[in-house]
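This part of the workshop introduces the protein records we will be handling. The structure tokens are whole numbers drawn from a learned vocabulary of backbone shapes. The record below serves as our worked example for the rest of this section.

===
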Amino acid sequence: MIKKIGVAQLKPGMHIHDLNCDWMDHPFLRGSFKVKNNGQVEKIAAYGIREVYIDTGKGLDAPDAREESEVRAELEQQMREVAEKAKPVPIASLADEMGKAQKVHREANLIVHRILQDSRIGKQIELEQVEPVVEQMTDSIFRNKDALLSLARIKQKDDYTFLHSVSVGTLLISFCRALELDRDTIKLAGIGGLLHDVGKMKVPDAILNKPGKLTETELLVMKSHVVYSRDILSETPGIAQVSLDVAAQHHERHDGSGYPLGLKGSEMSIHGQMAAIVDVYDAITSERCYHKGMEPTVALRKMFEWSKFHFNPELVHAFVRTIGIYPVGTLVMLESGRIGIVIEQRESNLAQPLVRVVFNARKGYYLVPEDIDLSRPLGMGGGDRVVSHESPAKWGIDVYKFM
């Protein structure tokens, strides 16, 4: 049985099923292992981990601990309640915006790739190269955020650093837009997102591109990229404090367990707190050669859970409302046994998106694609509901083929 316990309850003989944190925030080779001694418990606590899941079938029990299924059901209910508070925003259709978003996404990737490579050889960043594409990204998100957000999920493992930077910029712009920040601030946050990992160009390639888990020593070197980013951007003519905060604080944590300064709560700027959320979300949903990315819905539930300690809970709630419980591009199983792809959010009810059904899971064959608006009743284009999210790999479905 899988149960959730506080680290204070953890003791030798228990088998950790899940360390319950961002995989980049700990040095353990695996997230599942048997605790051998108190030193391991102290090490887990030292990395800011507050709660873990244990497998009582493989180790000692904690009789009063809550079962994972109970915790998950409670979190999902809380997420639905948060999502119901989303404000409707008039938008262009996804179909109308997708072509424009693809062009902007390609340009952003090229520019970030060039800037980061130039930084590697010591060339100073020129904001004039970044500002126009951030303006275009902002325009696209104002028209329909889901087009660019769905593209931000597509990553090639070899270009992760560059594509991650574009994704963080995209997510930050959309997040700021949802919080109704002024347009100038939104663009400055977007610039910070695109450049937040520029310091990684100072990290040795052997560590940056290592096809496996980093050792503790390597992890310390990798963590130095935040200081490098801050220093590089501080020397960039015209850089704004908002952009600098995004880069300097995206690995800080709400409870003070982050780095490099261990800032806590309001010691971080709101833009730094937002950057911390989107950076982790994009990292844990991305495929790496040594780490399988989570499905967006699972990642959101994890972030929601971690917000008790690592993130500002109110901002995590706002982030859930920003991208939805089932973000565009998510594969979902419907009550009817059909599998579909979320192609549009219904801002009035994020649990009832527009879904393009493409596969009959009960009979095992593809369907003629049909759009189902789950916010409508039977006979009016709806009459179904989401029962679970699904892995595209499990069903062999290329979601972007149908979008």
User: Anything to note?
Assistant: The chain has a mean pLDDT of 90.
